[in-house]
Each structure stands twice: as C-alpha cells, then as structure tokens.
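pasting input
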Amino acid sequence: MNMGKRSKVAFQGERGAYSELAARQFFGEEIPLVPCPSFEHVFRAVEKGQARCGVVPIENSLAGSIHQNYDLLLKYHLQIIGEKSLRVSHNLIAAPQTSLARVRRIFSHPQALMQCQNSTARLKNVELIPVYDTAGAVKKIRDENLTDGAAIASDLAARLYGMKILKRNLEDNPENYTRFLVLSRTGKAPQKADKTSIVFSLKNLPGALFRSLSVFALRDIDLYKIESRPLHGKPWEYFFYIDFAGNMRHPNCRNAITHLSEIATFLKILGSYQRDRA
Amino acid sequence: MNMGKRSKVAFQGERGAYSELAARQFFGEEIPLVPCPSFEHVFRAVEKGQARCGVVPIENSLAGSIHQNYDLLLKYHLQIIGEKSLRVSHNLIAAPQTSLARVRRIFSHPQALMQCQNSTARLKNVELIPVYDTAGAVKKIRDENLTDGAAIASDLAARLYGMKILKRNLEDNPENYTRFLVLSRTGKAPQKADKTSIVFSLKNLPGALFRSLSVFALRDIDLYKIESRPLHGKPWEYFFYIDFAGNMRHPNCRNAITHLSEIATFLKILGSYQRDRA
C-alpha cells in the first residue's frame, strides 16, 4: 500500500515484534514505526492521529482469536483497511558469545513458549520464563548482558538488537500463522476490496442467529469467519463478528446488510478490504 | 446431585477457588474435593478415575469463553453431565492484623485484578501483582505472613485460610457470572436434561455453517451458544461448539444430529444435561 513518507504505523510491542514484521510486509520496509506498550495504545494512537495506521493481530491458527482486539474494534471508531497473514517462525536468540550449551533460561511471551514446548523440552536444565513480549525478551538479554539466557522471537528482533540466532524454526507446529488487521481512522475501502467485517447483536430470540446468517446465504454471500464476544451487562448475550466475501460497494452486500439491520439490535460495519490469501 | 460419600470432585486451583464454590453449590457442601494444578489435570483425574467428577469454568459473562477448556473437551473423552452459573463476588482479603490503610500490594489472578480495576484505582500507593490463582493469593498471604499485602478472592477462601475480609463486592461490574461444566467419565444424561453440547467440523465450502445451523432451525431447536476454535494443521478452518435446547433422548434432537452428520466431517456429542437458569 502507498502512503506518504511521513505516515507512521503503530504496533504493539518492542521493535522487532511480529506485528512489526506484518506492518513491513504490508506497507514496505521503509515505513516509520510507532511501537506501543499495549493494543489499546495502538487504537488510541490511530484515533488521535499520532499514527496514520495501526497493525494488530486478530487471530492465530493455533491459539485462536485475540479477543481483546475484537473488543477494541467495537470500542474505537476505526476502519479495517487491510489484512496480512504472517507465517510465525520462532528463533532461539542469544548474545553473540553465548553457545546453546550455556543457555539456562529462555525468555519469551507465554504464547511463544507454549508453541515451542517440544523443542525446548529437548534442552537440558533450562528454565522457561514468561515475559511481556517476544522482541522485548531479546532486548532484555542485550540490555542486561545475560550470557546464560536466550529469547524466542523473530529473526528481525535478532537483527535489530545485534544478537545471534542459535536455532531456527523452533515452533512445534509449522502451520503457525497469525492474521493481522490494518486499521485507519478515515477508511475508504480499497478498490480491490473483496472482504467485509461487521459486528452486530441480536434480540435473544430462538432462531435469531440462524435468521441473521440467512441474509448472507439467501444472497450466496460466503462467510469466512464468525466470532462471538460477551455483551457486558447482559450475561449470556453476545456480539457477533462476521467476515464475509464482497465489499460494501456491491449492491448484493448492501442489500444483505439492510436485511440484517431489520433483525439486529445493533450493527456496525468495520470495513471492506482486500483478503490476504497467503 | 446425589453421589456416593467417597465420590471425589476435581477442580483447578487451591482450596477456596471459585471452581470449588461452583462444585459445592452443585454437589453440596460435604463433597470430598481434589484440588488440581491445571485444567488439564482436572480432565486427567476424571479420565483416570482419581475423581468421579470434575468442575471447570467454560465462560465468563465479562471475559468470554475459556478456550483451553473447549480444546480439552475435544481432547479427553468425558461427558458433560451438568452446569452451574456462579455470580462472581470478589473480596479484598488480608491477615487479621492488617488494616486497609496498610495495604501496599494486592495479589490475584490477572482476570480478577482486571475486574476490580476501578475499585483498586481508588486505593493509594498500591501495587497490583498478578499470581497463579485467586485462592492461591490468599494462601500466599497466610503462608508468607504478608502484613502489607491483600488478595482478591472468594469469601470461602478468606474463611478457609483464617483471613479477614477488608472490603466486599470489589468487582466493577455486578453482572459478573462464570458458567462451570460438570464432567464425568461415564455419562448417562440426567432424566431432566434439557440442553445438549456438541462439537463438529465442516468441509470448507460456501454456506456450510449456514446449512449446519439449518438442521436445528428446521426442527425449531433453539441454539444457546456457538463457539469456534482453530483446527490445528488447517489454518483458518474451525471446530464449532454448539449448545442447543433438548436432550439426545428426544427423536427431534436425534434427527437433527443425524442430519448434521451428513454435513459434518467430524461430530462428537459432549453430553446432555440440565440447564442452569440462574
């Protein structure tokens, strides 16, 4: 995607985070980046105009949806303008003078530690220590001069902090992908948009969910994903998030949404964008 | 529910955990309990016969589904034989000699800390420290004689560890409920069962999810919940978990499931049980 040279992109984590990789793949390597301490800070930076766009993970093929970001899509008024699927490849990273045999502690995000359980179990006398984020673990090893420590993170993080990769492809399951959303304050759907995301709630009536899905089925609109999140204050009622094929310029999609608004008690269009088939 | 006097019930956490409260409400106060270090240990204890039943949380009305337990329902071959909704009421708990003004650190599970953010923000010079579980935080304060520390946990935990309640109803949102499932190895559906849970996967075809829901809609069977979880090894395909009205002794439900098995690539019935309307 083309953006002005000064257009900044916000992401959560330290420099070298997987979100930064996704942002670079989407916007190109030269984009100015704004690291943020939390997902909510990313949404806020975009809403306040401190960054032109934000990149947040929404789903991992092993761990499932990142629910906090579904909730933030509802809370903030941003548009989804793109998505990027990233193959997550974990590396064991240490200081240049550290050998594999000297590693006694491995730092990483709990999710990454879990995804490398089999690989790390083969190492002897090693303690696994959960920390805030993957790239942050590499930074910690550099900043604190830890010569018996290693981190699990991206190869970009190793490069950025001048650290050495002891072992590549540490992940137990190679089918490890994370899908990221690209968010913007003022969203005009890209010309090639072929996917739309919405969120809605329903009256708590028998058959309500089925009827809401029928607005798509009756128009041969394919659904990619459905996700539910609790509606606060109404125990056991839900917001439904749906991704479907098409964009809001198509009359067929507009008709489906008009039909859905007859059934829904709340409805918000999150954006139309180009589907990443990678 | 009636069980023999020696029938043990497994749950995750230290004594006094919210799961223990749910187990006591379901089985009665006298039931022998088996505390387990993780959810997977609960499933394993029931599968191996070390406990007759297990009680695990499946959904919180604020935080959403507990996905690990959805995944474990698929991995282990246990039956759901009941459910219990528990109103989660958090208390600030400290040693008998500690006053509210002396509290400098509050320990609890990250989820509980998050649910009491507004209440704890009003206390000055207090650090929030996430720990393994709520009741474990109370035990820690007792075991380590922490006189400047407090825990957020159930009143049962305060009672069991001989600690004092400094403040009740600490939760920011009173609509805070957790739904627990009761699991057993050999499940015969209770006579009054009016709810059934299943899990299935579908061919990745347009309209597949809609067709799978039509087997219920065509027979006027009400759906209570739908949840999706990633299918490992097949990025962006899902297992669907559905709770519906009725039990597998009803011909109507059996017909719906037979119909669903024509569409599904995988189908497992998790159990029929009595719905908790609380």
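fyi The domain at 195-273 of chain A is CATH 3.30.70.260 (Alpha-Beta Plaits).
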